[in-house]
């Protein structure tokens, strides 16, 4: 009997450290009976730690992307107002040009395929905090003030564009992009034969003085154009228009709408190309700004 008891105790110890196997539909599931807690307690903790570490690593990267900028490569047929609209740039093409002036140069209408433009910061996603809401309100007020100032400036310009001599600017409130006689290989004459007024597509184009329309239609590289003969024998030319409002032989008055600006012909973006000529034909150009000023028109 002592011999049997002596062999049962070691057998009992081996049994408590062994694996109990339960059959389940022909499969076996091994369940540790001893040491399970000590062997596997660290596993959930390690998994959580890994997840926390992963979140902490990726969170700053996501924030950085949300707060960053993106690059846009100019494609054939692109122009600033088109890009600004498609990319939803706050402030429109003027803001896009301001942000990329060092890349584009002095003329916003001259952009070429492959040019890399920086699109501004993306709006932060999620609900606005009180501080961001305050910033948004301040920005809205600043924008409203800027719009009022712009309207006031345009109104002032509109009131002063027509001179006592009966001459006016071809577009209101526009600035000059490329000036007269700027040299460059992009022009067949070797230089710019007029001035470019920076305006978006659809801007009203006006006759600078009373006269007779000698041509109105397609002008090759000039796109849709109008040429008007004035009383002093000089001719004014308006090019790259999106639509025409007059026809050849028609008489017009100073300030009368003759069409809308656009980007037809050989251009990279919408603007009005304006010339003064001694004949109705290309190659007889004179300084258009000097001509307008000689008739009392203020040109910015």
Automatic annotation (TrEMBL):
Residues 70-119 form the LysM domain. InterPro entries: Cell_wall_metabolism_enzyme, Dup_hybrid_motif, LysM, LysM_dom_sf, M23ase_b-sheet_dom. Residues 122-141, 146-165 are annotated as: Disordered. Keywords: Signal. Residues 152-165 have a biased composition (Low complexity). Residues 1-41 form the signal peptide. GO terms for molecular function: metalloendopeptidase activity. Transmembrane segments: none annotated. It comes from the Bacteria. It holds the Pfam family Peptidase_M23. PANTHER family: MUREIN HYDROLASE ACTIVATOR ENVC, PEPTIDASE-RELATED. This is Peptidoglycan DD-metalloendopeptidase family protein.
């Amino acid at each position: 009997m002592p011999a049997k008891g002596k062999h049962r105790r070691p057998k009992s110890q081996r049994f408590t450290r062994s694996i109990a196997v339960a059959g389940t539909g022909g499969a076996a599931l091994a369940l540790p009976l001893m040491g399970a807690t000590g062997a596997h307690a660290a596993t959930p903790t390690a998994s959580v730690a890994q997840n926390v570490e992963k979140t902490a690593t990726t969170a700053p990267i996501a924030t950085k992307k949300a707060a960053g900028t993106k690059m846009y490569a100019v494609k054939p047929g692109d122009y600033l107002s088109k890009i600004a609209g498609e990319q939803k740039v706050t402030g429109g093409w003027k803001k896009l040009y301001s942000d990329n002036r060092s890349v584009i140069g002095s003329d916003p209408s001259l952009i070429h395929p492959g040019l890399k433009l920086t699109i501004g910061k993306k709006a932060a996603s999620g609900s606005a905090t009180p501080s961001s809401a305050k910033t948004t309100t301040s920005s809205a007020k600043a924008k409203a003030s800027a719009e009022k100032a712009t309207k006031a400036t345009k109104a002032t310009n509109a009131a002063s564009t027509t001179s006592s001599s009966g001459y006016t600017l071809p577009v209101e409130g526009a600035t000059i992009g490329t000036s007269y006689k700027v040299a460059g290989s992009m022009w067949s004459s070797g230089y710019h034969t007029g001035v470019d007024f920076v305006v978006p597509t659809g801007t009203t184009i006006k006759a600078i003085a009373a006269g007779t329309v000698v041509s109105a239609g397609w002008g090759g590289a000039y796109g849709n154009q109008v040429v008007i003969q004035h009383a002093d024998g000089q001719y004014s030319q308006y090019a790259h228009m999106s639509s025409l409002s007059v026809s050849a032989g028609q008489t017009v008055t100073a300030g009368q709408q003759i069409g809308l600006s656009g980007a037809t012909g050989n251009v990279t973006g919408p603007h009005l190309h304006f010339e003064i000529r001694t004949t109705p034909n290309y190659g007889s150009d004179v300084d258009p700004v000097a001509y307008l000023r000689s008739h009392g028109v203020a040109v910015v």
